[in-house]
Amino acid sequence: MKLLEIAHSRTGDKGDISNISVIAYDIRDYELLKEKVTEELVARVYKGYCHGTVTRYELPQIGALNFVLTSTLGGGVTRSLRLDTHGKCLCSYLLDVDI
Amino acid sequence: MRTIRIGSGAGFSNDRVEPGIELLEKGNLDYFCLECLAERTIAIAQKEKTSDPDIGYNPYLVYRMKRILPAAVKNKVKVITNMGGANVEKAVAKTAEIARSFGITGVKIVGVLGDDIFSQLDRYDDCPIFETGGRLGDLKNKVAANAYLGCEGIVQALKDGADIVITGRCSDPALFLAPLVYEFGWAMDDYEKMGKGTVVGHLLECSGQVSGGNFCIPGYKDVEDLCHLGFPYADVSEDGKIFISKPAGTGGRVDVQTCSEQLLYEIHDPANYVTPDCIADFSNVSFVQAGEDRVQVLGATGKEKPSTLKVSVGYKDGYIGSCGLSFGGPKCFERTVLAVRTIEEIIQTYYDPAEHRVDIIGYNSLYPRDLDEGFPNGAEPLELRMRVAVRDDNRETLTMIFNEVDAFTIDGPANCGGMQRSISELVAMLSVLVPREDITVSFIEEVL
Fold first, then answer.
1. How far is Cα B257 from Cα B212, in angstroms, rounded to an integer?
2. CATH H-level superfamily of B313-430
3. Which residue among B260, B359, B367 places its CB closest to the CB of A23?
4. What is the chain B residue with the closest CA to A72?
5. Hey, where are the domains in chain B?
Protein backbone atom coordinates (compact mmCIF):
# COMPACT_ATOMS: atom_id res chain seq x y z
CA MET A 1 0.00 0.00 0.00
CA LYS A 2 1.23 3.48 -0.87
CA LEU A 3 1.34 6.06 1.89
CA LEU A 4 -0.90 8.15 -0.41
CA GLU A 5 -3.80 5.80 0.41
CA ILE A 6 -3.89 6.68 4.11
CA ALA A 7 -2.20 10.06 4.50
CA HIS A 8 -2.00 13.53 3.04
CA SER A 9 0.90 15.91 3.14
CA ARG A 10 2.18 19.45 2.57
CA THR A 11 5.69 20.90 2.31
CA GLY A 12 6.80 24.20 3.79
CA ASP A 13 10.10 26.07 3.53
CA LYS A 14 12.21 28.40 5.62
CA GLY A 15 15.70 29.25 4.41
CA ASP A 16 17.44 25.96 3.61
CA ILE A 17 15.04 23.94 5.77
CA SER A 18 12.06 22.00 4.48
CA ASN A 19 9.22 20.67 6.61
CA ILE A 20 6.96 17.90 5.43
CA SER A 21 3.74 17.02 7.24
CA VAL A 22 2.18 13.57 7.03
CA ILE A 23 -1.44 13.51 8.22
CA ALA A 24 -3.68 10.46 8.52
CA TYR A 25 -7.02 10.74 6.69
CA ASP A 26 -8.44 8.57 9.44
CA ILE A 27 -6.96 9.27 12.86
CA ARG A 28 -7.15 5.55 13.62
CA ASP A 29 -4.25 5.11 11.16
CA TYR A 30 -2.00 7.38 13.20
CA GLU A 31 -0.28 4.54 15.06
CA LEU A 32 0.50 2.86 11.74
CA LEU A 33 1.99 6.12 10.42
CA LYS A 34 4.05 6.45 13.57
CA GLU A 35 5.37 2.94 13.17
CA LYS A 36 6.09 3.06 9.43
CA VAL A 37 7.01 6.66 8.61
CA THR A 38 10.20 7.00 10.59
CA GLU A 39 13.03 9.52 10.41
CA GLU A 40 15.12 6.80 8.73
CA LEU A 41 12.50 6.24 6.04
CA VAL A 42 12.22 9.96 5.31
CA ALA A 43 16.01 10.32 5.19
CA ARG A 44 16.09 7.44 2.68
CA VAL A 45 13.36 8.95 0.48
CA TYR A 46 15.18 12.29 0.30
CA LYS A 47 18.69 10.86 -0.05
CA GLY A 48 20.53 13.04 -2.54
CA TYR A 49 18.24 15.91 -1.66
CA CYS A 50 18.54 16.38 2.10
CA HIS A 51 22.15 16.95 3.12
CA GLY A 52 21.37 17.59 6.77
CA THR A 53 19.30 15.97 9.48
CA VAL A 54 15.73 14.67 9.66
CA THR A 55 13.73 15.30 12.86
CA ARG A 56 10.20 13.99 13.49
CA TYR A 57 7.60 15.73 15.65
CA GLU A 58 4.42 13.91 16.67
CA LEU A 59 0.94 15.41 16.91
CA PRO A 60 -1.34 12.51 17.91
CA GLN A 61 -4.37 14.75 18.52
CA ILE A 62 -4.58 15.56 14.79
CA GLY A 63 -3.06 12.26 13.62
CA ALA A 64 -0.04 13.99 12.16
CA LEU A 65 3.73 13.76 11.96
CA ASN A 66 5.91 16.71 11.04
CA PHE A 67 9.34 16.11 9.54
CA VAL A 68 11.99 18.82 9.53
CA LEU A 69 14.81 18.38 7.00
CA THR A 70 17.83 20.67 7.27
CA SER A 71 20.19 21.57 4.38
CA THR A 72 17.56 20.46 1.90
CA LEU A 73 16.69 23.38 -0.36
CA GLY A 74 19.88 23.73 -2.39
CA GLY A 75 21.29 26.49 -0.18
CA GLY A 76 17.96 28.19 0.44
CA VAL A 77 15.07 29.57 -1.52
CA THR A 78 16.90 32.74 -2.46
CA ARG A 79 19.91 31.16 -4.18
CA SER A 80 18.94 27.62 -5.11
CA LEU A 81 19.42 26.59 -8.74
CA ARG A 82 16.67 23.99 -8.50
CA LEU A 83 13.50 24.38 -10.53
CA ASP A 84 11.31 24.10 -7.42
CA THR A 85 13.30 26.47 -5.20
CA HIS A 86 10.78 26.19 -2.36
CA GLY A 87 10.65 22.38 -2.52
CA LYS A 88 6.86 22.58 -2.66
CA CYS A 89 6.67 19.40 -4.74
CA LEU A 90 8.74 17.33 -2.29
CA CYS A 91 5.93 15.84 -0.21
CA SER A 92 4.42 14.01 -3.19
CA TYR A 93 7.46 11.72 -3.34
CA LEU A 94 6.98 10.66 0.27
CA LEU A 95 3.36 9.71 -0.45
CA ASP A 96 4.65 7.35 -3.16
CA VAL A 97 6.41 5.16 -0.59
CA ASP A 98 5.13 1.62 0.04
CA ILE A 99 4.27 1.00 3.66
CA MET B 1 -18.98 38.14 24.52
CA ARG B 2 -17.57 40.21 21.63
CA THR B 3 -16.42 38.50 18.47
CA ILE B 4 -14.22 39.95 15.73
CA ARG B 5 -14.15 38.68 12.17
CA ILE B 6 -10.81 38.87 10.35
CA GLY B 7 -10.50 37.98 6.67
CA SER B 8 -7.44 37.00 4.68
CA GLY B 9 -7.05 38.92 1.42
CA ALA B 10 -3.72 37.63 0.15
CA GLY B 11 -1.15 35.01 1.14
CA PHE B 12 1.76 36.21 -0.95
CA SER B 13 2.72 39.04 -3.27
CA ASN B 14 1.33 37.47 -6.45
CA ASP B 15 -1.78 36.00 -4.82
CA ARG B 16 -5.19 36.15 -6.48
CA VAL B 17 -7.12 39.39 -6.10
CA GLU B 18 -10.76 38.49 -6.78
CA PRO B 19 -11.35 35.94 -3.97
CA GLY B 20 -10.18 38.58 -1.51
CA ILE B 21 -12.51 41.20 -2.94
CA GLU B 22 -15.43 38.75 -2.76
CA LEU B 23 -14.60 38.09 0.89
CA LEU B 24 -14.38 41.82 1.56
CA GLU B 25 -17.76 42.43 -0.10
CA LYS B 26 -19.71 39.47 1.28
CA GLY B 27 -17.84 38.33 4.38
CA ASN B 28 -19.27 40.80 6.89
CA LEU B 29 -15.69 41.41 8.03
CA ASP B 30 -14.26 43.71 10.66
CA TYR B 31 -10.68 43.44 9.38
CA PHE B 32 -9.14 42.52 6.04
CA CYS B 33 -5.48 41.50 6.25
CA LEU B 34 -3.13 40.90 3.32
CA GLU B 35 0.26 39.19 3.64
CA CYS B 36 2.26 40.15 0.55
CA LEU B 37 5.93 40.18 1.54
CA ALA B 38 8.15 37.14 1.00
CA GLU B 39 11.56 36.82 2.63
CA ARG B 40 13.55 38.02 -0.33
CA THR B 41 11.07 40.48 -1.82
CA ILE B 42 11.98 43.29 0.52
CA ALA B 43 15.70 43.06 -0.23
CA ILE B 44 15.09 43.21 -3.96
CA ALA B 45 12.73 46.14 -3.40
CA GLN B 46 15.37 47.87 -1.29
CA LYS B 47 17.84 47.53 -4.13
CA GLU B 48 15.31 48.93 -6.61
CA LYS B 49 14.60 51.84 -4.29
CA THR B 50 18.24 52.92 -4.40
CA SER B 51 17.87 53.57 -8.14
CA ASP B 52 14.31 55.00 -7.91
CA PRO B 53 13.21 56.45 -4.53
CA ASP B 54 9.56 56.38 -5.61
CA ILE B 55 9.31 52.57 -5.78
CA GLY B 56 10.11 49.72 -3.44
CA TYR B 57 6.58 49.06 -2.16
CA ASN B 58 4.64 46.02 -3.35
CA PRO B 59 4.41 46.08 -7.17
CA TYR B 60 0.69 45.21 -7.08
CA LEU B 61 -0.24 47.73 -4.38
CA VAL B 62 -1.92 50.08 -6.85
CA TYR B 63 -3.90 47.29 -8.54
CA ARG B 64 -5.02 45.84 -5.22
CA MET B 65 -5.81 49.15 -3.51
CA LYS B 66 -7.97 50.27 -6.44
CA ARG B 67 -10.13 47.21 -5.79
CA ILE B 68 -9.87 47.20 -1.99
CA LEU B 69 -10.41 50.83 -1.01
CA PRO B 70 -13.95 51.38 -2.31
CA ALA B 71 -15.13 48.02 -0.95
CA ALA B 72 -13.44 48.50 2.43
CA VAL B 73 -14.92 51.97 2.91
CA LYS B 74 -18.40 50.86 1.80
CA ASN B 75 -18.39 47.85 4.13
CA LYS B 76 -16.61 49.64 7.00
CA VAL B 77 -13.74 47.17 7.11
CA LYS B 78 -10.27 48.08 8.35
CA VAL B 79 -7.32 46.99 6.20
CA ILE B 80 -3.92 45.79 7.45
CA THR B 81 -1.14 44.85 5.02
CA ASN B 82 2.64 44.61 4.71
CA MET B 83 2.50 45.90 1.13
CA GLY B 84 4.72 48.80 2.20
CA GLY B 85 7.69 46.55 1.48
CA ALA B 86 10.86 48.61 1.38
CA ASN B 87 9.07 51.94 1.03
CA VAL B 88 6.21 52.38 3.50
CA GLU B 89 6.22 56.18 3.05
CA LYS B 90 5.55 55.99 -0.68
CA ALA B 91 3.04 53.16 -0.20
CA VAL B 92 1.03 55.35 2.18
CA ALA B 93 1.24 58.32 -0.20
CA LYS B 94 0.19 56.18 -3.17
CA THR B 95 -2.71 54.64 -1.25
CA ALA B 96 -3.88 58.12 -0.21
CA GLU B 97 -3.65 59.26 -3.82
CA ILE B 98 -5.82 56.33 -4.95
CA ALA B 99 -8.34 57.02 -2.15
CA ARG B 100 -8.56 60.68 -3.17
CA SER B 101 -9.15 59.68 -6.79
CA PHE B 102 -12.25 57.78 -5.58
CA GLY B 103 -13.39 60.81 -3.55
CA ILE B 104 -12.97 58.85 -0.31
CA THR B 105 -12.97 60.99 2.86
CA GLY B 106 -12.90 60.34 6.60
CA VAL B 107 -10.22 57.68 6.30
CA LYS B 108 -6.90 57.56 8.14
CA ILE B 109 -3.97 55.72 6.58
CA VAL B 110 -1.08 54.94 8.90
CA GLY B 111 2.33 53.58 7.92
CA VAL B 112 4.39 51.65 10.47
CA LEU B 113 8.13 52.33 10.17
CA GLY B 114 11.14 51.01 12.00
CA ASP B 115 11.88 47.62 10.44
CA ASP B 116 14.54 49.04 8.12
CA ILE B 117 17.79 49.08 10.12
CA PHE B 118 20.21 49.05 7.19
CA SER B 119 21.73 52.43 8.10
CA GLN B 120 22.76 51.12 11.55
CA LEU B 121 23.74 47.60 10.49
CA ASP B 122 27.46 48.11 11.14
CA ARG B 123 26.66 48.07 14.87
CA TYR B 124 26.20 44.33 14.45
CA ASP B 125 29.41 43.61 12.51
CA ASP B 126 30.61 41.26 15.23
CA CYS B 127 27.30 39.39 15.49
CA PRO B 128 27.20 35.84 14.14
CA ILE B 129 25.14 35.11 11.06
CA PHE B 130 22.34 32.80 12.19
CA GLU B 131 22.59 30.32 9.30
CA THR B 132 26.38 30.12 8.85
CA GLY B 133 27.93 31.26 12.14
CA GLY B 134 30.15 33.65 10.15
CA ARG B 135 30.73 37.26 11.17
CA LEU B 136 28.16 39.70 9.75
CA GLY B 137 30.88 42.29 9.13
CA ASP B 138 32.60 39.88 6.74
CA LEU B 139 29.53 39.57 4.54
CA LYS B 140 30.08 41.69 1.41
CA ASN B 141 27.68 43.66 -0.80
CA LYS B 142 24.87 44.01 1.73
CA VAL B 143 21.88 45.89 0.32
CA ALA B 144 19.14 45.61 2.94
CA ALA B 145 18.43 44.75 6.56
CA ASN B 146 14.89 44.49 7.87
CA ALA B 147 13.76 43.40 11.31
CA TYR B 148 10.70 41.22 11.73
CA LEU B 149 8.51 43.47 13.87
CA GLY B 150 5.73 42.13 16.05
CA CYS B 151 2.17 43.38 16.34
CA GLU B 152 2.92 46.34 18.61
CA GLY B 153 3.24 49.01 15.91
CA ILE B 154 0.04 47.91 14.18
CA VAL B 155 -1.81 47.90 17.51
CA GLN B 156 -0.62 51.46 18.18
CA ALA B 157 -1.71 52.55 14.69
CA LEU B 158 -5.19 51.11 15.35
CA LYS B 159 -5.32 52.90 18.72
CA ASP B 160 -4.48 56.11 16.86
CA GLY B 161 -7.56 55.61 14.72
CA ALA B 162 -6.10 54.03 11.60
CA ASP B 163 -8.54 52.61 9.06
CA ILE B 164 -5.74 51.35 6.85
CA VAL B 165 -2.40 50.19 8.26
CA ILE B 166 0.58 49.66 5.94
CA THR B 167 3.76 48.06 7.24
CA GLY B 168 7.09 46.90 5.90
CA ARG B 169 8.65 43.77 7.33
CA CYS B 170 6.74 42.29 10.24
CA SER B 171 5.92 38.73 11.17
CA ASP B 172 3.09 37.33 9.07
CA PRO B 173 0.86 36.39 12.04
CA ALA B 174 1.27 39.90 13.52
CA LEU B 175 -1.00 41.29 10.78
CA PHE B 176 -3.85 39.16 12.19
CA LEU B 177 -2.86 39.18 15.87
CA ALA B 178 -2.79 42.98 16.04
CA PRO B 179 -6.54 43.60 15.61
CA LEU B 180 -7.31 41.01 18.32
CA VAL B 181 -4.93 42.68 20.77
CA TYR B 182 -6.41 46.07 19.92
CA GLU B 183 -10.08 45.13 19.96
CA PHE B 184 -10.02 42.91 23.04
CA GLY B 185 -7.32 44.74 24.98
CA TRP B 186 -5.36 41.50 25.28
CA ALA B 187 -2.21 42.09 27.33
CA MET B 188 0.85 41.49 25.19
CA ASP B 189 2.39 39.45 28.00
CA ASP B 190 -0.68 37.21 28.19
CA TYR B 191 1.15 34.55 26.22
CA GLU B 192 -1.73 32.11 26.10
CA LYS B 193 -3.75 34.78 24.26
CA MET B 194 -0.77 35.71 22.09
CA GLY B 195 -0.49 32.02 21.15
CA LYS B 196 -4.19 31.89 20.26
CA GLY B 197 -3.91 35.04 18.15
CA THR B 198 -0.80 33.63 16.50
CA VAL B 199 -2.56 30.43 15.46
CA VAL B 200 -5.30 32.60 13.91
CA GLY B 201 -2.61 34.47 11.97
CA HIS B 202 -0.80 31.30 11.02
CA LEU B 203 -3.93 29.62 9.68
CA LEU B 204 -5.02 32.72 7.72
CA GLU B 205 -1.73 34.14 6.49
CA CYS B 206 -1.56 31.95 3.38
CA SER B 207 -5.12 32.81 2.29
CA GLY B 208 -6.55 29.89 0.25
CA GLN B 209 -4.13 27.33 1.71
CA VAL B 210 -6.55 26.78 4.61
CA SER B 211 -9.70 26.83 2.48
CA GLY B 212 -8.96 24.29 -0.24
CA GLY B 213 -5.94 25.69 -2.07
CA ASN B 214 -2.77 23.59 -2.45
CA PHE B 215 -4.88 20.64 -1.36
CA CYS B 216 -6.79 18.88 -4.14
CA ILE B 217 -5.70 15.46 -5.35
CA PRO B 218 -8.60 14.37 -7.54
CA GLY B 219 -10.14 11.17 -6.20
CA TYR B 220 -8.37 11.51 -2.83
CA LYS B 221 -8.91 15.05 -1.58
CA ASP B 222 -11.48 16.63 -3.86
CA VAL B 223 -12.10 20.36 -3.90
CA GLU B 224 -14.97 22.01 -5.74
CA ASP B 225 -14.67 25.14 -7.89
CA LEU B 226 -11.10 26.36 -7.46
CA CYS B 227 -11.94 29.17 -9.88
CA HIS B 228 -14.20 30.72 -7.24
CA LEU B 229 -12.06 29.59 -4.28
CA GLY B 230 -13.32 31.23 -1.11
CA PHE B 231 -10.66 33.02 0.92
CA PRO B 232 -10.84 32.31 4.66
CA TYR B 233 -11.88 34.32 7.66
CA ALA B 234 -11.68 33.73 11.41
CA ASP B 235 -14.29 34.53 14.05
CA VAL B 236 -12.44 35.12 17.29
CA SER B 237 -14.09 35.91 20.59
CA GLU B 238 -12.68 37.97 23.42
CA ASP B 239 -11.93 34.86 25.49
CA GLY B 240 -10.02 33.24 22.63
CA LYS B 241 -12.57 30.96 20.94
CA ILE B 242 -11.54 30.55 17.29
CA PHE B 243 -13.54 29.43 14.26
CA ILE B 244 -12.16 29.32 10.69
CA SER B 245 -14.59 29.55 7.78
CA LYS B 246 -15.15 30.99 4.29
CA PRO B 247 -18.04 32.80 2.59
CA ALA B 248 -21.07 30.68 1.64
CA GLY B 249 -21.39 29.95 -2.06
CA THR B 250 -17.66 30.08 -2.78
CA GLY B 251 -15.47 27.19 -3.93
CA GLY B 252 -13.00 25.33 -1.80
CA ARG B 253 -13.48 23.68 1.58
CA VAL B 254 -12.67 24.38 5.21
CA ASP B 255 -12.42 21.24 7.29
CA VAL B 256 -10.21 19.40 9.74
CA GLN B 257 -7.97 18.17 6.91
CA THR B 258 -7.35 21.57 5.32
CA CYS B 259 -6.72 23.14 8.74
CA SER B 260 -4.33 20.34 9.76
CA GLU B 261 -2.22 20.83 6.61
CA GLN B 262 -2.03 24.57 7.14
CA LEU B 263 -1.28 24.25 10.87
CA LEU B 264 2.00 22.46 10.05
CA TYR B 265 2.91 24.56 7.01
CA GLU B 266 6.37 26.09 7.55
CA ILE B 267 6.40 24.87 11.15
CA HIS B 268 9.40 23.10 12.64
CA ASP B 269 8.95 22.19 16.32
CA PRO B 270 5.18 22.69 16.83
CA ALA B 271 5.74 23.44 20.54
CA ASN B 272 8.16 26.26 19.77
CA TYR B 273 7.09 28.44 16.85
CA VAL B 274 9.19 31.55 17.37
CA THR B 275 7.56 34.87 16.50
CA PRO B 276 8.31 38.41 17.70
CA ASP B 277 5.16 38.38 19.88
CA CYS B 278 5.45 34.99 21.56
CA ILE B 279 6.87 31.53 21.17
CA ALA B 280 3.67 29.93 20.03
CA ASP B 281 2.88 26.37 21.10
CA PHE B 282 0.76 24.50 18.55
CA SER B 283 1.67 21.05 19.90
CA ASN B 284 -1.79 20.52 21.42
CA VAL B 285 -3.87 22.24 18.76
CA SER B 286 -6.85 20.23 17.58
CA PHE B 287 -9.76 20.90 15.25
CA VAL B 288 -13.49 20.23 15.48
CA GLN B 289 -15.84 20.45 12.51
CA ALA B 290 -18.40 22.95 13.80
CA GLY B 291 -20.55 23.22 10.68
CA GLU B 292 -20.28 23.21 6.91
CA ASP B 293 -16.93 24.82 6.05
CA ARG B 294 -16.54 25.89 9.65
CA VAL B 295 -13.84 24.55 11.99
CA GLN B 296 -13.18 25.32 15.64
CA VAL B 297 -9.51 25.61 16.62
CA LEU B 298 -8.68 24.38 20.12
CA GLY B 299 -5.60 24.16 22.28
CA ALA B 300 -3.26 26.89 21.01
CA THR B 301 -1.10 28.61 23.59
CA GLY B 302 2.23 30.38 23.87
CA LYS B 303 5.29 31.16 25.90
CA GLU B 304 7.30 34.30 26.59
CA LYS B 305 8.49 36.18 23.52
CA PRO B 306 12.20 36.06 22.62
CA SER B 307 14.49 38.89 23.73
CA THR B 308 15.84 39.26 20.19
CA LEU B 309 14.29 40.07 16.83
CA LYS B 310 15.27 38.36 13.60
CA VAL B 311 16.77 40.67 10.99
CA SER B 312 16.88 39.52 7.38
CA VAL B 313 20.00 40.77 5.64
CA GLY B 314 20.02 40.89 1.84
CA TYR B 315 23.30 40.86 -0.08
CA LYS B 316 24.18 40.91 -3.74
CA ASP B 317 25.58 37.57 -4.79
CA GLY B 318 26.19 37.88 -8.52
CA TYR B 319 23.72 36.61 -11.09
CA ILE B 320 21.36 33.67 -11.30
CA GLY B 321 19.44 32.39 -14.27
CA SER B 322 18.10 29.45 -16.17
CA CYS B 323 17.19 28.42 -19.68
CA GLY B 324 15.26 25.56 -21.21
CA LEU B 325 15.10 23.67 -24.49
CA SER B 326 12.50 21.07 -25.49
CA PHE B 327 12.60 17.70 -27.26
CA GLY B 328 9.59 15.69 -28.40
CA GLY B 329 8.53 12.50 -30.15
CA PRO B 330 10.41 9.22 -30.68
CA LYS B 331 13.73 8.90 -28.84
CA CYS B 332 13.25 12.26 -27.15
CA PHE B 333 14.70 10.87 -23.91
CA GLU B 334 17.87 9.69 -25.65
CA ARG B 335 18.26 13.04 -27.43
CA THR B 336 17.68 15.01 -24.22
CA VAL B 337 20.22 12.88 -22.33
CA LEU B 338 22.74 13.54 -25.12
CA ALA B 339 22.01 17.26 -24.80
CA VAL B 340 22.54 17.12 -21.02
CA ARG B 341 25.85 15.28 -21.36
CA THR B 342 27.02 17.62 -24.12
CA ILE B 343 26.21 20.85 -22.27
CA GLU B 344 27.91 19.48 -19.16
CA GLU B 345 31.03 18.82 -21.24
CA ILE B 346 30.85 22.27 -22.86
CA ILE B 347 30.49 23.99 -19.48
CA GLN B 348 33.44 22.04 -18.06
CA THR B 349 35.60 22.62 -21.13
CA TYR B 350 34.97 26.31 -21.79
CA TYR B 351 33.39 27.89 -18.71
CA ASP B 352 33.81 27.69 -14.98
CA PRO B 353 30.67 29.08 -13.35
CA ALA B 354 30.44 29.33 -9.55
CA GLU B 355 27.55 26.86 -9.60
CA HIS B 356 25.40 25.17 -12.20
CA ARG B 357 22.96 22.31 -12.59
CA VAL B 358 21.36 20.56 -15.55
CA ASP B 359 18.04 18.74 -15.22
CA ILE B 360 15.43 17.21 -17.46
CA ILE B 361 11.95 18.56 -16.81
CA GLY B 362 9.65 15.55 -16.98
CA TYR B 363 12.33 13.23 -15.60
CA ASN B 364 14.52 14.49 -12.75
CA SER B 365 14.02 18.23 -12.20
CA LEU B 366 11.92 17.87 -9.01
CA TYR B 367 13.36 14.69 -7.54
CA PRO B 368 16.77 13.14 -8.21
CA ARG B 369 17.07 10.30 -10.73
CA ASP B 370 20.22 9.21 -12.58
CA LEU B 371 20.26 9.54 -16.35
CA ASP B 372 21.30 5.88 -16.65
CA GLU B 373 18.16 4.64 -14.88
CA GLY B 374 15.73 5.73 -17.59
CA PHE B 375 11.97 5.86 -17.18
CA PRO B 376 10.27 3.25 -14.98
CA ASN B 377 9.14 0.15 -16.92
CA GLY B 378 10.80 1.49 -20.08
CA ALA B 379 8.06 4.06 -20.57
CA GLU B 380 8.48 6.42 -23.55
CA PRO B 381 7.84 10.07 -22.70
CA LEU B 382 5.99 12.25 -25.22
CA GLU B 383 8.20 15.28 -24.65
CA LEU B 384 10.96 16.51 -22.35
CA ARG B 385 12.75 19.75 -21.60
CA MET B 386 16.37 20.28 -20.66
CA ARG B 387 16.85 22.96 -18.02
CA VAL B 388 20.23 24.59 -17.41
CA ALA B 389 20.61 26.82 -14.33
CA VAL B 390 23.72 28.86 -13.55
CA ARG B 391 24.97 31.18 -10.82
CA ASP B 392 28.09 33.31 -11.24
CA ASP B 393 29.49 36.73 -10.34
CA ASN B 394 29.89 37.49 -14.04
CA ARG B 395 26.65 37.96 -15.97
CA GLU B 396 28.44 37.23 -19.24
CA THR B 397 29.20 33.68 -18.07
CA LEU B 398 25.46 32.99 -17.84
CA THR B 399 24.77 34.67 -21.17
CA MET B 400 27.41 32.66 -23.00
CA ILE B 401 26.38 29.32 -21.45
CA PHE B 402 22.76 29.99 -22.39
CA ASN B 403 23.89 30.89 -25.92
CA GLU B 404 25.56 27.47 -26.04
CA VAL B 405 22.20 25.90 -25.18
CA ASP B 406 20.45 28.06 -27.76
CA ALA B 407 23.00 26.89 -30.34
CA PHE B 408 21.86 23.28 -29.84
CA THR B 409 19.05 24.15 -32.26
CA ILE B 410 21.70 24.09 -35.01
CA ASP B 411 24.76 22.44 -33.40
CA GLY B 412 23.25 19.93 -30.92
CA PRO B 413 21.16 16.74 -31.01
CA ALA B 414 18.34 16.56 -33.55
CA ASN B 415 15.13 18.53 -33.44
CA CYS B 416 15.01 20.64 -30.32
CA GLY B 417 13.38 24.02 -29.83
CA GLY B 418 11.50 26.40 -27.61
CA MET B 419 14.57 28.03 -26.04
CA GLN B 420 13.70 30.48 -23.28
CA ARG B 421 16.04 32.12 -20.80
CA SER B 422 16.03 34.50 -17.87
CA ILE B 423 18.89 36.10 -15.94
CA SER B 424 18.55 38.27 -12.86
CA GLU B 425 20.76 39.88 -10.28
CA LEU B 426 20.84 37.61 -7.24
CA VAL B 427 19.97 39.04 -3.86
CA ALA B 428 20.49 36.30 -1.31
CA MET B 429 19.35 36.39 2.31
CA LEU B 430 20.89 35.58 5.65
CA SER B 431 19.81 36.65 9.12
CA VAL B 432 21.09 37.93 12.45
CA LEU B 433 19.37 38.26 15.81
CA VAL B 434 19.46 41.73 17.37
CA PRO B 435 18.30 42.93 20.79
CA ARG B 436 14.62 43.84 20.68
CA GLU B 437 15.22 47.19 22.43
CA ASP B 438 17.43 48.37 19.53
CA ILE B 439 14.40 48.61 17.26
CA THR B 440 12.17 51.68 17.50
CA VAL B 441 8.83 51.84 15.75
CA SER B 442 7.59 55.13 14.30
CA PHE B 443 4.60 56.19 12.22
CA ILE B 444 3.53 58.34 9.29
CA GLU B 445 -0.06 59.12 8.43
CA GLU B 446 -2.35 60.61 5.81
CA VAL B 447 -5.83 61.70 6.83
CA LEU B 448 -8.44 62.07 4.11
1. 9
2. ACT-like. Chain A, domain 2 (3.30.70.1150)
3. B260
4. B367
5. 3-114+149-306, 313-430
